[in-house]
Design goal:
Chain lengths: ~425, ~150, ~750
């Protein structure tokens, strides 16, 4: 089984230096792209691979790049941004790539920047990723030294500066337009879309925001071609995927597996199944903002289309397992509290609705919830549904709540009837 | 007044952006790095440095969780309270630390040694429960070795 | 234009406007908060939801925010779909969750956008049972009161204060449901436009502190259309009165002048009317040596007229009062009461504006300029609202760029995000450039690419060379097929109107009064109309001049230095107590009306000067006969006997609470309301309550809209022009520059 993204990552050993990465053939894709391909060809190749953004929404990367105009208006600048914010609870995949193989990301970013003809690139990294930040800064310095960054890269006349910007906390800054505001030194409030960043992004200029995992793919796809990428997966969606499992499993962790590996294989095979004495009750498949899956979904393949047809989203592909010794209401409450705390405060449903939902869930735990509170919660899931809010934060928050109400309704009712949390 | 050191570091950051104000968050972090927190006075000073108004800087400062607008202790303990860590026992970790230091979330110990705060997922879920003290990540926590960890921070 | 289907009916709508804006223009009552016609959309409040259907077969549709929705040909929408109505109601439910429900003690009560929207969406049953979030309030200075708990986080305050008006000291702090709108620390708001927060805020977070000192509900106030007299721009205002006292000033919409906003001087500068220094009675001085004393007997000016009289008018007084004085003393004995320098520059400026060569733009047109030279005038001080217009003009480049990129102007933050790289068009500000050829050269560069070039200058900082340069530049631009706009800031509210009358300069007046003249020509009486001469020349000069007159008659409203020198002091009605016309810097003649019934010995200036004229219309008739340049006024401004459906126009709203009980502390019988002979407005709640002619709108109200948002109901479209007669006022230079 091929594991292109993680092949050079070994636990307990630091990342490859630039030299080591180069010797391992890590810059082949970069040489090929800059020396042999036109920007449009790079975009064409990535489009052909059908690489879907690994940040959670699964938007085709090549299509996103294709939206960037050839000529930029205004100052003429274009920007590429790597989204390394990774604040989605339960998610720890980008950190693995950042700490494990920074040059793979950097090589991918140089190619991506070349494809959209960006002159500046930023890595927007989560505040808490101190180690990753240090590793990145070192790797970037190496890349400048080796002439992969700066002026006239590889003698091709292409220039690129790459900076690391570390964030100051706030989940919403992972949302690409909020990220852009934050990178401009402003409050991390999402922007209206349209215009999309490809039209007007960082500093009002055409910009592309891609996830770390997405960008880490680029040099491989350029080097080996779209068909190779498509062949890696178990289903039609292409590539491998970093899948993670956390919670009461025997062997929590992260694995690079063919896209479309089934939920069962990942949980029971790689993660070793549930710890003794614990039973599986639910699965949050791809970070806090995805709907619960339950046991009956174990055999679905973990790819965008299949998880969607099961009523959830692949999201980040890192699962959180809810076991039978954890109160589902408390679990949902934990998630909703997170989303309520992280609401940016821009739009009404999210700003007012999430704290309300949180308080109701708290009252469930305290045993003071009333029968009508279920109805209010259900109302709130619709109130904060897609399209009703300014960005996808609150709709994301509603996914575990609405599916929690669906799958764990009995547990909610027990809290009301028994006037206490049965798990306490 | 910003120290020369702080000013130089801020200046360095402003070079990465088309205009100085864009380095606002970086500037706040630089000053906080040196002083532990951001006072009203620091807000004014940063504003002057970046050609912004105090209201503009504070608007940004108060938005971000990791900018402290109140004094914190010499060490900041950030306990992950996200779902995986919760499942894996972060509440007892918190309770243990809270009892030991006699502080709750948001408080600073009397000797100014620790401030205790919650933090959302640290991205270390496969090694839950996890916490961070200053810049160091500690994971796979058991109540047994928390004392030892805290000992490292004076 | 695009044809779209709203609730099953087809409408032609404007493609450059968003769906909400178009629907409001068509009269649909779509509730909204964060949208503002002058500031565009941000999509934050989520109240303006409508249903959009993909095609005729789509029965489910999807909820969209109408303020963020461009209109496209063939679009199908529903404004009253049940889903949409339920959603809007729950937006209010969300906003009311933490609202303190303190309407009875809130100054916004009765004219509150939040109250209106709550009723409109039908939210009335509270399900949120938890503790409310609370905030501390700040001290924001003498004008604005802060009550943060009432906030519904629509972001309008910061958008107006920061983005629209460029203020730096108000902002939003915190995040999530703790967002806070205020200053970094307590302290007076610095912006000269801070008062607009009162109207921009849809609730009672920012309220008028001056008004609060003598507060009354909107329905207990009598409202009168008026014109601000604090500078030469002539912003339209509404003056509200109760119990004979001016309580507050609010914006009155004029789509060509001030739009939705006024500056703080206009809003809060009216306090002098209630000042203890007001002259309310006739004062007489028995002999030169004795004191000036109040008298109770009524008298007229003719009781004191001398043989040789000079009348000194004022650029701060109405056209009618000035003309009445001129008429009384004769053209050759009428003085403008301003220095020779100001007189000369003013006249030259007016000749330029009348010359067909240049165009005199309205404030709204200034907003559309794409290159501006500001020469020698500190407009931030002398004409604040013009500075605000210039600030909007500075965005023209990014708006154009936005259009190119498919980002409509109304998508406010999206266009502002583009701003960061584009330093507007050419904006050159010089304290004073002196040489004509330098100016011409400068303009050549600045205006090379401009489509709507504008030069702004003024009397206080300008000079003749600048005016000459304007002519030269205009000629040069004409060759390129471009029109040059020139906007000149004048020192006072009626500088332009006065300049269109004949009159002497102050220097000439001094000369006439000077004793070296032949004995029979010696001036024995000087009448000074609403003009504190000590502000116009040194004390020595004015002392010397007045000493030479046997008798000094002053008609004024405030006890100033000049008034103290009077032998006869006659109490004049201030602008809010009288009707009249002023001509603004654009050349727009605008009528203001009396907001308070006259009492005691107070009389308008014109009435003191001529006791034959019974009302303002008679003065205007005489004025137009003598000065045909003003003839447009006659046709444009309704006479006092104008009626709407046979009724006068009510100054009070329909819901005036207990009108008959209002003066019950004085008398239980209901007195006849005071009569207003100078206007078609009634000092009463009885009268016409529909949409009156544009210049006579006393207040904004429409069923379901008690707040200032009702303004839009009086316009052809939001941010458009006033219906029923167009934007108030008549441009006197128009027929001159039309080619
Ligand atoms: C509330 C919210 C939080 C998000 N957080 C992240 C994040 O932490 N990391 C990330 O890569 N994408 C995040 N996204 C998705 C980004 O908006 C964006 O779609 C993504 O970075 C694009 O990269 P991709 O096309 O490579 O997937 C978030 C989206 C939302 C709505
Ligand atoms: S849904 Fe609204 S309030 Fe919530 S994060 Fe997005 S923009 Fe902010
Ligand atoms: S008015 Fe449309 S979202 Fe506020």
């Amino acid at each position: 089984m091929e594991t292109p993204l993680t092949q050079h990552i070994q636990p307990g050993r630091g990342p490859l230096s630039l030299k080591e990465f180069e010797n391992a053939g890590g810059f082949k894709g970069l040489h090929k792209a800059l020396r042999e391909m036109k920007p449009a060809d790079v975009i064409f190749t990535v489009k052909g691979s059908n690489l879907m953004g690994r940040g959670g929404a699964g938007f085709p990367t090549g299509v996103k790049w294709g939206l960037v105009p050839q000529e930029a208006a205004g100052s003429g600048m274009k920007y590429l941004i790597a989204n390394a914010d990774e604040m989605e609870p339960g998610t720890f995949k980008d950190r693995y790539l950042l700490e494990g193989n920074p040059h793979q990301l950097i090589a991918g970013m140089i190619i991506a920047a070349y494809a959209i003809q960006a002159q500046k690139a930023y890595i927007f990294i989560r505040w808490a990723y101190k180690k990753a930040e240090a590793i990145l800064r070192k790797a970037i310095a190496e890349a400048y030294e080796a002439g992969y960054l700066g002026e006239n890269i590889l003698g091709t006349g292409f220039n690129l500066d790459l900076y690391v910007h570390s964030s100051a906390g706030r989940y919403i800054c992972g949302e690409e337009s909020a990220l852009i505001n934050s990178l401009e030194g402003k409050r991390g409030i999402p922007r209206a879309k349209p215009p999309f960043p490809a039209t007007s992004g960082l500093f009002g200029q055409p910009s592309v925001v891609n996830n770390v995992e997405t960008l880490s793919w680029i040099s491989h796809i350029i080097e080996n071609g779209p068909q190779w990428f498509l062949d890696l997966s178990a289903t039609g969606e292409g590539g491998t995927k970093l899948y993670g499992v956390s919670g009461r499993v025997k062997n929590p962790g992260l694995w690079e597996l063919p896209m479309g590996t089934t939920v069962r294989e990942i949980i029971e095979g790689y993660a070793g199944g549930m710890q003794d004495g614990y039973k599986l009750r639910g699965i949050i498949p791809g970070g806090a903002s995805t709907d619960f899956l339950v046991e009956s979904h174990l055999d679905i393949p973990m790819d965008y289309a299949s998880v969607r047809s099961a009523g959830s989203r692949l999201g980040t592909g890192t699962m959180i397992i809810l076991d039978d010794k954890t109160c589902p209401v408390k679990f949902v409450h934990n998630l909703i509290k997170f989303f309520a705390d992280e609401s940016c405060g821009w739009c009404t449903p999210c700003r007012e609705g999430l704290p309300w939902a949180q308080k109701i869930l708290e009252s469930f735990e305290q045993g003071t919830a009333q029968p009508e509170d279920i109805g209010i919660l259900e109302h709130l899931t619709r109130y904060m549904g897609p399209g009703n809010t300014f960005c996808a934060h609150a709709p994301g928050a509603m996914e575990p709540l609405q599916s929690g109400l669906k799958y764990f309704r009995d547990d909610f009712d027990r809290h009301i009837n028994e006037k206490r949390c049965p798990w306490r | 007044m910003l120290s020369n050191h702080e000013r130089e570091e801020i200046l360095e950051e402003t070079r990465l952006y088309p205009y100085p104000g864009a380095a606002c968050i970086d500037a706040l972090k630089i000053v906080q790095h040196h002083r532990g927190w951001i006072s009203d006075e620091a807000i004014e000073d940063i504003a002057a440095e970046l050609e912004l108004s105090a209201a503009e800087v504070d608007s940004v400062a108060t938005f971000y969780t990791r900018i402290y607008r109140k004094p914190v202790g010499r060490n900041v303990i950030l306990v992950c309270d996200s779902p995986t860590c919760m499942i894996m026992g972060s509440e007892s970790v918190y309770q243990y630390i809270s009892d030991k230091l006699s502080i709750r979330f948001g408080e600073t110990s009397a000797d100014d040694r620790f401030t205790l705060l919650p933090i959302t997922c640290l991205g270390d879920c496969d090694h839950a429960p996890a916490l961070m003290i200053n810049d160091d990540l500690h994971n796979n926590l058991t109540l047994g070795h928390i004392d030892e960890i805290l000992e490292k921070y004076r | 234009m695009a044809k779209i289907q709203i609730d099953g009916t087809f409408y032609e709508v404007k493609s450059e406007k968003n769906l909400l804006d178009n629907c409001l223009a068509l009269g649909f009552d779509i509730p909204y908060f964060c949208f503002h016609p002058a500031m565009g959309s941000i999509g934050a409040c989520r109240l303006c939801a409508v249903k959009k259907f993909a095609n005729a077969d789509d029965k489910r549709g999807r909820i969209v925010m109408s303020c963020m929705e461009p209109v496209v040909e063939g679009m199908i929408i529903s404004t009253d779909d049940p889903d949409v109505k339920a959603f809007r109601e729950s937006i209010l439910e969300g906003l009311m969750a933490n609202h303190p429900h303190d309407c009875p003690v809130c100054d916004e009560g009765g004219e509150c956008h939040l109250q209106d929207m709550t009723v409109m969406t039908g939210h009335n049953y509270r399900r949120y049972t938890f503790k409310k979030r609370t905030h501390n309030n700040q001290y924001l200075g003498p004008y604005i009161k802060h009550e943060m708990n009432r906030c519904i986080q629509c972001y309008r305050c910061v958008r107006f204060y920061r983005n629209y008006a460029g203020g730096k000291d108000l902002n939003v702090f915190g995040s999530g449901n703790r967002v806070y709108f205020g200053r970094q620390q307590d302290g007076a708001l610095e912006s000269e436009f801070s008062g607009n927060l009162v109207e921009v805020c849809p609730t009672g977070v920012f309220t008028d502190k001056i008004f609060n000192k003598h507060y009354a509900r909107k329905w207990d106030l009598a409202h009168t259309p008026s014109v601000c007299q604090q500078c030469s721009l002539g912003c339209n205002i509404i003056v509200s009165e109760r119990y004979g006292m001016i309580r507050r000033v609010m914006n009155r919409y004029n789509g060509s002048v001030n739009g939705y906003f006024i500056c703080d001087r206009g809003r809060f500068g009216h306090e002098f009317i209630n000042s203890p220094d007001r002259i309310k009675k006739v004062h007489l001085r028995a002999s030169k040596a004795s004191e000036l004393l109040e008298v109770d007997e009524s008298c007229t000016l003719s009781d004191f007229m001398g043989k040789k009289v000079i009348g000194i008018g004022s650029p701060g007084a109405s056209l009618e009062s000035n003309f009445a004085l001129l008429n009384l003393v004769g053209k050759e004995n009428f003085s403008h009461g301003i220095s020779e320098a100001e007189h000369k520059l003013t006249n030259q400026s007016i000749r330029l504006l009348q010359s067909r060569k240049v165009y005199s733009p309205s404030l709204k047109e200034i907003e559309k300029s794409d290159a501006i030279l500001v020469l020698g005038e500190d407009i931030a001080k002398t004409a604040p609202m013009m500075a605000l217009a210039v600030r909007q003009a500075a965005r023209s480049e990014s708006i154009k760029l936005g259009e190119k990129l498919g980002i409509p102007e109304w998508n406010d933050y999206a266009v502002r995000e583009l701003d960061q790289n584009h330093q507007g068009p050419d904006f050159i500000v010089t304290p004073s450039a002196t040489k004509i050829h330098e100016l011409v050269e400068m303009a050549g560069q600045a205006f090379a690419k401009a489509e709507n070039p504008l030069i702004i200058t003024g009397i206080s900082g300008g000079n003749e060379d600048i005016l000459d340069a304007c002519s030269t530049i205009a000629d040069a631009l004409k060759k390129q097929g471009k029109k040059l706009s020139v906007s000149i800031v004048f020192p006072e509210c009626n500088s332009v109107g006065l300049a269109l009358l004949d009159g002497l300069t102050l220097e000439e007046t001094e000369e006439r009064i000077d004793g070296r003249q032949k004995a029979e020509e010696k001036i024995d009486t000087v009448i000074i109309l609403e003009n504190d001469l000590y502000k116009r020349a040194s004390k020595e000069r004015i002392d010397a001049m007045l000493k030479k007159c046997r008798q000094v008659i002053v008609i004024d409203h405030l006890m100033n230095e000049t008034a103290r020198q009077a032998d006869v002091l006659l109490p004049a009605a201030a602008f809010a107590e009288s009707a009249g016309t002023v001509v603004n810097n654009e050349g727009r003649a605008q009528r203001f009306y009396s907001a308070v019934p006259l009492t005691g010995q107070l009389k308008p200036g014109w009435s003191w000067c001529n006791d034959q004229w019974e009302n303002l219309d008679q003065v205007v008739n005489a004025l137009v006969d003598a000065y045909p340049v003003f003839s447009a006024i006659k046709n444009q401004m309704p006479d006092a006997d104008f009626r709407c459906s046979n009724e006068k126009i009510a100054r009070q709203t329909m819901r005036s609470s207990g009108r008959t009980a209002m003066n019950a502390n004085i008398s239980v019988s209901e007195p006849k309301p005071p009569q207003d002979n100078d206007s078609p407005l009634a000092f009463s709640m009885e009268g016409y309550k529909g949409s009156p002619p544009s210049g006579l709108i006393p207040y904004y109200w429409s069923s379901g809209w008690n707040s200032v948002q009702a303004t839009n109901k009086y316009l052809d479209e939001p941010d458009g022009h006033v219906r029923n007669g167009g934007d108030p006022g008549v441009r006197l230079f128009d027929d001159i520059d039309k080619e």
